[in-house]
Specification:
Blueprint lengths: L8 H16 L2 H9 L6 E5 L5 H10 L4 E6 L2 H10 L4 E4 L12 E7 L8 H11 E12 L6 H14 L1 H8 L7 H10 L6 E5 L2 E4 L2 H11 L8 H14 L10 E4 L2 E7 L2
Parallel strand pairs: 1-2, 1-4, 2-3, 4-5
Antiparallel strand pairs: 5-9, 6-9, 7-8
Helix pairs in contact: 1-4, 1-9, 2-3, 6-7, 6-10, 9-10
Amino acid sequence: MGAAGQLISSAAEVYDEFFLPALFDPWAPQVVAAARLRPGMRVVDVACGTGVLTIEAAKAVSPNGAAVGVDLNPAMLSVARRKAPEIEWREAPAEALPLDSDDFDAVVSQFGLMFFQDQRAAVREMWRVLRPGGRLVVAVWDSVENAPGYAAVTSLLDRLFGGAIAELLKAPYSLGDPKALRSLLSSSGVIEPLVRRVDGEACFPSVRSWMHTDVRGWTLADKLDDEQYERLVSGAEEELSRFVTSDGSVRFDHPALIASASKP
C-alpha cells in the first residue's frame, strides 16, 4: 500500500488475520479470472499487502510461470514472505516499480490504488511493465454509500470523534465512482479500460471483532486510544446491531469495481 495505507507491524498481522477473510479473500479469484491468467505466464501484483492475490495468481500461472508481489510496506511483505517464501517479494512504491518494461503478461492490483500518493504515476508504471497483449486488472472498493456497514461506521465516528477521523475511514472508497476510475486510467495512458461493478459481502465474526480490525489493522490504526476504542465499541454494538445475523456474525453488502484493459 502507499503511504496513506502504511501499517505498523502489529497492524499488518491484524490485517492478515482478520481483514483477509472478512473482506479480501473472495476477490482474489475474481481478479485472477479477469486477468485471464494461464500456466506459464508472468504476473506482478502491485500493492500486494500480505499476498492474498499474489498467492492466488501464482497458483494460476504454475507450473513454469512466475508471480511477483510488490509493496511499499515492509511489515506487510514480512507476513507475505512467511506465508509463501517461494514467491518473489519486492519492496518498492507503486510509482517506481523496480521492473523491466514490457516484461509481464499480466499486472494486477487489488484494493491498493486508492492509497497511492500519485495514482496516475502508479497506473503509468503498471502499464509500462505490461507487455503488448497483456492484461491490466485493478480492483477498488465501490462507494461507501454502497457499503452500508461502513457508511454507518463513518457516521458513528463523525459523531464520536469528529469529521477528521471519519474521513480516514472513507479513504478506501475514494475511487468508488466508475466514471472517475475510468477517467483516471484513461488519463494515465490505459487504452479503453472497462469498469464493472461486482457485488460482494463483508463478513466479520462480531461487531467487536469488526471494530478491532478497523482500529488496529486498517485505516484507523493507532488513531484512537484505548478509552476512545471502548467508546467506539460500545456505540457500535448499539448502532450497528442491524448488521448482526442470528449467529452473532456481521454481514453487509460490500461491492467492488473491477477495471480491466488489454495493452495494444
